[in-house]
């Protein structure tokens, strides 16, 4: 699916298909779609790995080059070892510190991280089974935006129109966020199944040794 198809689906959900009298412009819907994709990515990011060279004698890695990064799930060092050697790490801004007894010698470290999904004119990284969920969130944002704009303005739908749109938007966003939380809990468990932490991780930015 690309952005144009997603926009069309959102218009159908909003019953805004009269091209001569759109209630929402393409730019407005694109903004709401992007917002839904961004929030979706926080709960179910695109899973990526990157091999990065360490600096001999230093435990710190600059990971600013991992564009669109949402989270770091695990660090393997050295990257070519078998079985994989997952290391404890700390994260502060764009600096990742490997918390191992031995100091890195310049060998590559493998970073397991989540990044923002893309949905643009050329395609999407959002899994097909979640496309309707993105449309649900985008429609909720669009309804709330219109309701906020319509407050204290005269409209042909009467005084209740803004309130009705706001209620519809809130209901859709509630379903959207509830499903994201469910997916997020599932993804946290699944993402950590490839190693067993010695102690429960306290956040997405701290991983313990196996």
Concise synopsis of the structure shown:
By secondary structure, the chain is α+β, with helices and mostly antiparallel strands.
List keywords for this structure.
210 residues; alpha+beta; disordered C terminus
Biggest sheet: strand arrangement: 1-6-3
Q: Count the beta strands.
A: 8
Cα distance spanning the termini: 39 Å
Give helix % range. Answer: 25-40%
Largest sheet: 3 strands, antiparallel
Fraction in beta strands: 15-25%
Integer tally of domains: 2
Shape: elongated
Q: List the helices and strands in order.
A: HHEEEEEEEEHH
Q: Quickly give the structural class.
A: alpha+beta
Report on the structure:
This protein has helices spanning 3-14, 26-43, 131-150, 161-191; strands spanning 46-53, 60-62, 69-76, 89-92, 95-98, 108-115, 119-120, 123-124. By secondary structure, the chain is an alpha+beta fold. It folds into two domains: 3-43 and 120-190; 47-115, no CATH class. The strands form three sheets. The protein has a three-stranded antiparallel sheet, with no helix packed on it. Strand 4 (89-92) and strand 5 (95-98) form a beta hairpin. Helix 1 (3-14) crosses helix 2 and helix 2 (26-43) crosses helix 3. The radius of gyration is 22 Å and the shape is elongated.
